[in-house]
Amino acid sequence: MNGDFPRILALLRKEKGISQKQAAADLGISQALLSHYEKGIRECGLNFLVRCADYYGVPCDYLLGRTADPSGVTLSVEEIPDPEAGGKENVWNGGILPTLNKKLIFNSLNILFDLLSKGRNKALVGEVSSFLMLSVYRMFRVVYSADPKNQQGLFALPGPLAGGYVDAEMQICEANANVIAQGKGGIVPGCENPGEAVRLPLGSQAITDTYPMYATSLFNLIRNTETRILSAQRSRDA
Question: Residue 50: which residues within 8 A CB-CB, separation 6 or more?
Fold first, then answer.
């Protein structure tokens, strides 16, 4: 079948709180055979795939890992929700701090991606985007895994490997982005169109003038980040 099917098959059953014995009976096979399917020891036929899709209420594409959404929806750019569309209801139950930090990050990202669009370098956009996605993935996984009852089958990458692999990929993205931004993307493996060096004259006043709605968020994000780093450094040196 493929590498995703066993993991997703087991994930769906566990998330719905169904025992393997019950699921096997409902699907018309032995528990031993279902166990083999969930472990990837044996491959199922098309008829069983369709039965599983009906049983768990998901499309076959989701079972096969061809779509990340259990509903089977594949979003276009136009269909992705606007992060600012939520309005006042985005003030979460946890209080003002999550909302404040979310706005600082989103507003700063607005500036970053606008600058990337002005740089007109697709390779650089790709590396920066991958770096940010990796950081969100890593922190989401930390929060998700804090509850041991949450099924780790949501992730294809085993937990013991995740931290090290994400670290490595983030360092690669940063290194690639750095040389691409300098116009040296030709040395990056697989970078077919490295583009020219990105030259965007910037300064606090220029940022404020160009991004009057978002500049304060970026400046506060920079200050908060450096305060944290420098405070930790002073503690180590003490």
Answer: 60
Whether the CB-CB separation of 53 and 60 falls below 8 Å is answered with yes
The alpha carbon dihedral of 216, 222, 226, 228 has a sign of: positive
φ/ψ of 67, rounded to 5, equals -140, 145
User: Which residues touch 65 (CB under 8 Å, ≥6 apart)?
Assistant: 2, 3, 4, 5, 8, 156
Task: List, for residues 88-130, the tens digit of each pLDDT value.
Answer: 545 555 567 788 888 899 999 999 999 999 988 888 999 999 9
At 187 the pLDDT is 78
Reference 109, options 141, 90, 135; nearest CA is 135
pLDDT of residue 100: 84
- Mean pLDDT throughout 181-189? 81
Q: Is 148 helix (H, G, I), strand (E, B) or coil?
A: coil
Q: What's the pLDDT tens digit per position in 187-221? A: 787 776 666 778 888 888 899 999 999 999 999 99
Spatial CB neighbours of 230, under 8 Å, sequence gap ≥ 6: none
Distance CA 83, CA 230 (A): 31
E-strand ranges in the chain read none
Q: 203 vs 119, 182, 200, CA distance in Å?
A: 16, 19, 10
| Residue corresponding to tokens 């309005």 | 87
Q: How confident is the model at residue 81 (pLDDT cuts 50, 70, 90)?
A: low
* Secondary structure in 3-state letters for 112-145: HHHHHHHHCCHHHHHHHHHHHHHHHHHHHHHHHH
